[in-house]
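Q: Please design a sequence for this.
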């Protein structure tokens, strides 16, 4: 719940802060471009869990990727901002968290 409240407050200026703050540069457009190139992502389907505002979709478009993109996030506000900035983007709000069991014996 605390995480949702934080994202609610940060949603509108999220991308600008992410592109300018040193600690966030690993999720910048340049970082995404490097990951797309390294992964050879040119087609197929891509599920972006924790997509925020869907910036990866924009970068895929800029790089000419023909991927089918789906982004999901727990923050309804982040999704709203993403849909406003990227009307063609397939973004969905997840109403519940995904829980993955942790195997502590590994």
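A: Design:
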């Amino acid at each position: 719940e605390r995480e949702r409240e934080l994202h609610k407050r940060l949603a509108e200026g999220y991308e600008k802060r992410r592109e300018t703050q040193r600690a966030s540069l690993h999720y910048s457009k340049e970082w995404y471009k490097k990951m797309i190139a390294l992964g050879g992502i040119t087609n197929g389907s891509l599920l972006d869990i924790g997509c925020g505002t869907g910036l990866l979709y924009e970068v895929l478009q800029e790089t000419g990727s023909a991927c089918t993109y789906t982004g999901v996030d727990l923050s309804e506000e982040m999704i709203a901002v993403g849909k406003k900035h990227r009307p063609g983007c397939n973004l969905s709000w997840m109403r519940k968290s995904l829980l993955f069991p942790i195997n502590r014996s590994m």
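Q: Thanks. Anything notable?
A: The helical segments are 2-10, 14-20, 29-39, 55-62, 76-85. The radius of gyration is 15 Å.
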